[in-house]
Design a protein that fits this description.
By secondary structure, the chain is mainly α. It is 73% helix and 0% strand. The protein has 6 helices and no strands. The N and C termini lie far apart (55 Å). The mean pLDDT is 91.
């Protein structure tokens, strides 16, 4: 659905919807959608069931490069390095 369709369904202008959405979530609708896609991709990458390219396509990116760029902007690292860092943080440390 487009922002115009959602706004019409909610009975408000697109600008008003945008303002209310940002007040409620702290993000614009487009940034929120990107955030949800990246969270979904991160969960799938952690599960290890597919490659980053496959997951990028699954969550709605047509370009793996764009997916990688947005992951880096949001998480500070490209997808595979981010997941490697997360896994390292989740691995219990054993005392020697």
């Amino acid at each position: 659905m487009s922002i115009d369709q959602i706004a019409a369904e909610a009975g408000m202008s697109p600008a008003t919807l945008h303002r209310h959405f940002k007040a409620a979530t702290g993000m614009s609708p487009l940034r929120y959608q990107k955030h949800l896609r990246l969270l979904s991709a991160r969960r799938q990458l952690l599960a290890g069931d597919a490659t980053a390219a496959q997951i990028a396509h699954t969550v709605g990116y047509t370009s793996t490069t764009q997916f990688s760029r947005e992951c880096r902007a949001f998480y500070g690292l490209p997808p595979v390095r981010d997941i490697t860092r997360l896994r390292a943080g989740l691995t219990p440390r054993h005392a020697a």
